[in-house]
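step=encode ok
step=design start
structure_in=
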């Protein structure tokens, strides 16, 4: 079974930076894409960024130019580099791996942007 474990969340001041990591384990193959989503209190889960196996990326308008998704060559780890953080970026961030075998999610990591 594929498992995803996020790390790197925490409390950061507005304008600060964080890097989230997503460690993937298990039978990982036939990947379509990996990505990051977030869910703020009282809101629906929303897309943050995705990356396909051809390294094509997609970002939500709210994070374009501030966040960058990346991965290692083996697709064992995905990253979300977050710069110029704003209070409205506060949410639980989830890692997602989509493959022909299924759609997998991590447990989430909390990011809080506050002074």
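sequence_out=
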């Amino acid at each position: 079974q594929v498992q995803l474990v996020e790390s790197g969340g925490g409390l950061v001041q507005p304008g600060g930076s964080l890097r989230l990591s997503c460690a993937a384990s298990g039978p990982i193959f036939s990947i379509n894409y990996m990505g990051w989503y977030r869910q703020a209190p009282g809101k629906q889960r929303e897309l943050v960024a995705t990356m396909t196996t051809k390294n094509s990326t997609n970002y939500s308008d709210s994070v374009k130019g501030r966040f960058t998704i990346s991965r290692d060559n083996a697709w064992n780890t995905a990253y979300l580099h977050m710069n110029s953080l704003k209070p409205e970026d506060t949410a639980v961030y989830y890692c997602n791996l989509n493959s022909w075998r299924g759609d997998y999610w991590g447990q989430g990591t909390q990011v809080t942007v506050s002074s």
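step=design ok
step=annotate ok -> Residues 2 and 26 are 4 Å apart (CA to CA).
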